[in-house]
């Protein structure tokens, strides 16, 4: 029976499927696209496969044929159609009319793509996927060459025993030589200590304060130092991870034995115990920065409280030794800075800080007065939603205004007049404190003009420190500015050559560089920031939340147990 002509057919014209299998397409027959095997291949016993074929428009144009559906030919065209089977030549293909878009440089720190998990579990922070982007391969630190132990000259020339490629521990500490792994002690001195302060002219208190008590300390203190060194070094040399874990376990065992045998009332007056707990706390921060570091924080608080109660009972005005005072400030500062993000109750209150002390602390990178204000802001942010009367709201407003005025006029003093790096880090923290106050107490958001201005000023300082390769002590300012970036206005200023500067790009570059300049857990910080950016991007078309302010809605739920000191 002869085939009917196209004009005699009724119903829609059956065309080939775009998703047909390879065998059907080769035989030019219609494929029913059944999976995993189409009907024709099943009946004929053929291998049913589907291949993805990439076609390039430039190749079709060079051959003079239409590209895909770009042609005007069709099965139902009339004979008097004047259309050609070839499409008109696009303007972009004519000679001399091509326009190429510039391709921006691609860096490892720039990948913040959302995955399915980001949508399914928006409140869970994925640290693992951000760790590789937060790390850099090199472990060398230019700032280490500036590290000098000038304040320890009276210890018999301890600086003379530090070598660029150490082979044994310093002879000044025989316990290190007997324990072995003396290179970890030198790693602590040459790589960790310089990363704990933004000052380029004064030695870190992690060396100048801790090492003197090592002359009479037990081997447990040196195990804690070596454990911290091994943990930090394992970020680039994984073979040290097991050693660091073993040394940490031995340190914990020794510390527990001492606390149980001597009792808390005696151990609270020994500076070595607090220093060991401080080093263990740092170990957990460098390692994973999860809830484990807060366990040492709470244990230290109990010992410090007990020591203060004993001192008050004896009516003694004796000031604590330098190691004890430093350890107390370490724990108190970690607590205050971390709880600005999660808005939980502060363990170490404002009584740990002198509200009139404007001298910049070397390790904190800011003045005790600024920390005292931050502590007060966090307490007020917790009480803000419980204001139930006009009188309480009026009192709250007056207190907030007083703190804002105090921050605006706060001048932080630097011991070394030429230490402008430390002064810049302190100024970045002051600006971040003003920004934090407006967001946590006044309900400001990234679209608020004042917030945009302070974010730009903070990132300007960060960009300057980034160019100078000195980013210690600015984890908190970077975090505060990053979480308050406006997702719809990422270009925060224009560079000298007229090119726009991206806020998110500046933050990511700073975080990548901070893995070299600090000992903070940048992977955790970066993961929280990226998670918050993704949430903001997803909420651009949603109505704003009215029951919580911006800080409570976006920052608090994903920032538990963060170390931002």
Structure write-up:
By secondary structure, the protein is an all-alpha fold. It folds into three domains: 12-66, Zn(2)-C6 fungal-type DNA-binding domain (CD2-Gal4), CATH 4.10.240.10; 113-141 and 365-565, no CATH class; 147-318, no CATH class. The chain has 23 helices and two strands. The longest helix is centred in the middle third of the chain and has 22 residues, at 241-262. The model is unreliable at 77-95 and 136-169 (pLDDT under 50).
Write a brief caption for the model:
The protein is mainly alpha-helical and 565 residues long. The chain has 23 helices and 2 strands.
Structural class based on helices, strands and sheet pairing: mainly alpha
Note the overall shape: globular
| Strand count | 2
Q: What is the subunit organization of this protein?
A: single chain
User: Helix content range of the residues, please?
Assistant: 40-55%
Largest sheet: 2 strands, antiparallel
User: What is the count of structural domains?
Assistant: 3
Terminal Cα span: 88 Å
Give the averaged pLDDT, no decimals: 81
- The H/E string reads HHHHHHHHHHHHHHHHHHHHEEHHH
Helical segment count = 23
Over the alpha carbons, how many angstroms does the gyration radius reach? Answer: 32 Å
Low-confidence stretches: 77-95, 136-169
Range of strand content: under 5%
| Strands ordered across the widest β-sheet | 1-2
Organism: Penicillium argentinense
Pfam families: Fungal_trans_2, Zn_clus
Coiled coil: 393-420
GO biological process, one term: positive regulation of transcription by RNA polymerase II
């Amino acid at each position: 029976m002869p085939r009917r002509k196209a004009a005699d057919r009724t119903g829609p014209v059956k065309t080939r499927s775009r998703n047909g299998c390879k065998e059907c397409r080769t035989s030019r027959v219609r494929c029913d696209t059944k999976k995993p095997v189409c009907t024709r291949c099943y009946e004929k016993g053929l291998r049913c496969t589907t291949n993805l074929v990439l076609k390039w428009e430039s190749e079709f144009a060079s051959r003079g044929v239409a590209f895909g559906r770009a042609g005007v030919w069709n099965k139902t065209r009339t004979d008097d159609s004047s259309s050609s089977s070839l499409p008109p030549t696009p303007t972009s293909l004519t000679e001399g009319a091509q326009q190429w878009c510039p391709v921006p440089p691609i860096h490892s720190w720039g990948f913040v793509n959302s995955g399915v998990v980001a949508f399914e579990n928006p409140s869970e922070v994925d640290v693992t996927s951000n760790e590789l982007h937060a790390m850099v391969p090199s472990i060398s630190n230019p700032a280490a060459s500036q590290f000098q132990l000038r304040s320890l000259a009276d210890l018999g020339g301890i600086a003379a025993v530090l070598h660029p490629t150490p082979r044994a521990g310093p002879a000044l500490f025989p316990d290190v030589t007997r324990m072995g792994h003396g290179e970890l002690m030198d790693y602590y001195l040459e790589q960790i200590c310089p990363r704990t302060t933004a000052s380029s002219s004064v030695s870190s208190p992690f060396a100048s304060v801790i090492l003197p008590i090592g002359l009479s300390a037990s081997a447990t203190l040196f195990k804690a130092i070596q454990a911290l060194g091994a943990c930090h070094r394992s970020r680039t040399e994984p073979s040290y991870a097991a050693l660091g874990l073993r040394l940490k376990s031995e340190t914990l065992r020794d510390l527990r034995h001492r606390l149980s045998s001597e009792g808390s009332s005696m151990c609270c007056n020994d500076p070595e115990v607090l220093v060991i707990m401080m080093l263990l706390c740092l170990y957990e921060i460098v390692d994973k920065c999860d809830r484990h570091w807060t366990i040492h924080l709470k244990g230290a608080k109990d010992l410090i409280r007990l020591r203060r109660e004993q001192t008050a009972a004896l009516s003694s005005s004796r000031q604590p030794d330098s190691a004890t005072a430093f350890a107390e400030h370490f724990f108190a500062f970690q607590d205050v800075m971390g709880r600005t993000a999660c808005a939980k109750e502060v363990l170490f209150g404002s009584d740990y800080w002198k509200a009139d002390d404007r001298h910049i602390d070397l390790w904190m990178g800011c003045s005790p007065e600024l920390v005292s204000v931050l502590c007060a802001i966090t307490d007020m942010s917790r009480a803000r939603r419980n204001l139930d009367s006009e009188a309480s709201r009026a009192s709250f407003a007056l207190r907030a205004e007083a703190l804002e005025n105090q921050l605006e006029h706060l001048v932080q003093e630097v011991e070394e007049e030429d230490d402008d790096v430390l002064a810049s880090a302190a100024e970045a923290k002051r600006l971040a404190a003003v920004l934090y106050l407006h967001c946590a107490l006044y309900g400001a958001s990234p679209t608020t003009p004042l917030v945009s201005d302070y974010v730009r000023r903070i990132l300007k300082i960060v960009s300057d420190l980034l160019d100078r390769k000195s980013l210690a002590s600015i984890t908190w300012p970077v975090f505060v500015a990053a979480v308050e970036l406006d997702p719809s206005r990422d270009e925060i200023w224009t560079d000298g050559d007229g090119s726009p500067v991206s806020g998110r790009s500046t933050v990511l570059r700073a975080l990548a560089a901070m893995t070299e300049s600090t000992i903070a857990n940048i992977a955790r910080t970066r993961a929280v920031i990226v998670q918050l950016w993704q949430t903001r991007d997803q909420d651009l078309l949603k109505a704003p939340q009215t029951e919580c302010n911006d800080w409570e809605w976006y920052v608090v739920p994903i920032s538990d147990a963060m170390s931002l000191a």
